[in-house]
Design goal:
alpha/beta; binds 4-nitrophenyl phosphate; 4 strands; globular; 157 residues; 39% helix; 5 helices
């Protein structure tokens, strides 16, 4: 299997995309595919560069056995568009931002993450930043469903 490079993107890179990175990395390692699939996350915004994930996201992830505390936020950079094979965004705002930042030759790499969770009625992973802890549980449920679909998609080549 050719190595596949995946980048998860949200606005701040402290809530949704770090949880997506953590959940998908856990799934990939449980399948023994860590040498085949490279994973990172980034934000479209710059406010939180260098910060750890949101404590609510770290706690909700830890409760599902996933440690995301080692992650540090970074901003999407120009080289990401050529380097990664798939760039998976959490919402339509992220999608518009990345389409406007990237050359047309890279647009085919950019998708809504929930496109890989076909059973989901939702198309966006909602921003949990200004809500309560329920929001983080909901985000993790959506991310788990899309992660399974994404892995099947990669394995199907
Ligand atoms: P994220 O959540 O995009 O899932 O990391 C947010 C984190 C911070 C802010 C917005 C969304 N903020 O406005 O600071």
């Amino acid at each position: 299997m050719k190595k596949t490079k995946i980048l998860f993107v949200c606005l701040g890179n402290i809530c949704r995309s770090p949880m997506a990175e953590g959940v998908f990395r856990d799934l990939v390692s449980r399948e023994g595919l860590e040498n085949e699939i490279e994973i990172d996350s980034a934000g479209t915004g710059s406010w939180h560069i260098g910060k750890t994930p949101d404590p609510r996201g770290m706690r909700a992830s830890a409760a599902r056995g996933i440690d995301i505390s080692g992650q540090r936020a970074r901003q999407v950079k120009n080289g990401d568009f050529s380097y990664y094979d798939l760039i998976l965004v959490m919402d339509h705002d992220n999608l518009q931002t990345l389409i406007s930042l990237s050359a047309p030759e890279y647009h085919h790499k950019i998708h809504l993450f929930l496109d890989f969770a076909p059973a989901s009625y939702e198309t966006e992973v909602p921003d949990p930043y200004f809500g309560g802890t329920d929001g983080f549980e909901h985000v993790l449920n959506l991310i788990e469903a899309a992660s399974r679909g994404l892995l099947l998609h990669i394995q199907a080549g």
